[in-house]
Amino acid sequence: MKGIGKFIFRFSRLIAISCSVFIVACSSSLPGLPTATVHPSLTKNINDYSYLIGPGDSLNVFVWGNAEVSGTYKVRPDGMITTSLVEDIHASGKTPTQLAREIEAKLANYIRQPIVSVIVDGFVGPFSEQVRVIGEASQPKAISYTKNMTLLDAMIQVGGLTEYANGNHASLIRVVNGKQKQYGLKIDDLLEDGNIKANVDLLPGDIIIIPESWF
């Protein structure tokens, strides 16, 4: 009965998709949108990886000896933050150390020889540095890249595959020299058979697409 139920579920999904395709075909006269712009990772040397601040990150900015101008600031969607004394500092795409030095330079107009520390609380990072897992993962989501992250690490974070996933036909999309390239993955071999050779290194900006198996 379980097998029959599974077949009925997949058949109903196939019908729904077919109907959607038919509707799209009937609306083919509508203008199409241009393909999304390719944004390569900001990380230039993966062997010297440093976390880059992104929109949504919460930053603790501590100015030594000046508690009144220290505080916690949220990076806005435009990548900027506004501190107590300095407005609109571009934070996204910078390391915490780089941002601290920039804040010091701006605060020097108000404070003598300021010493600033920036601590990230709640890591999000720029879109270009996130690893995104979509399709038949148990919990599809964007993951903040961690140094030396592998495919296995990412799959643990998304809770593995759904029962309908075709892991051995999954793809990895990566921007190489400004162009998108597609690579095959063997996630079933990695998770179900324990084939560690199917584990691969991930890079900032990778996209993992996991298709559904119809049979």
Automatic annotation (TrEMBL):
Where it sits in the cell: the answer is: Cell outer membrane
Membrane topology per record: Multi-pass membrane protein
Per the record, the major location class is membrane
Kindly indicate whether the keyword Transmembrane belongs to this entry. Answer: yes
What Pfam family is a match, any one? Answer: SLBB_2
Q: Does the keyword Cytoplasm apply?
A: no
Q: What PROSITE patterns does UniProt report for this protein, alphabetically?
A: PROKAR_LIPOPROTEIN
Record keywords, A-Z: Cell outer membrane, Ion transport, Lipoprotein, Membrane, Palmitate, Polysaccharide transport, Porin, Signal, Sugar transport, Transmembrane, Transmembrane beta strand, Transport
**Where in the sequence is the signal peptide annotated?**
1-25
Q: Where is the SLBB domain?
A: 130-210
* InterPro entries attached to this UniProt entry: PEP-CTERM_polysacc_export (IPR017477), Poly_export (IPR049712), Poly_export_N (IPR003715), SLBB_dom (IPR054765)
Domain Polysaccharide export protein N-terminal: where? 48-120
| GO terms classed as biological process | monoatomic ion transport
Record GO terms (molecular function) = polysaccharide transmembrane transporter activity; porin activity
GO cellular component terms attached to this protein's record: cell outer membrane; pore complex
> What family is it from?
Belongs to the BexD/CtrA/VexA family.
**Protein name per the record:** Sugar ABC transporter substrate-binding protein
Species of origin = Vibrio eleionomae
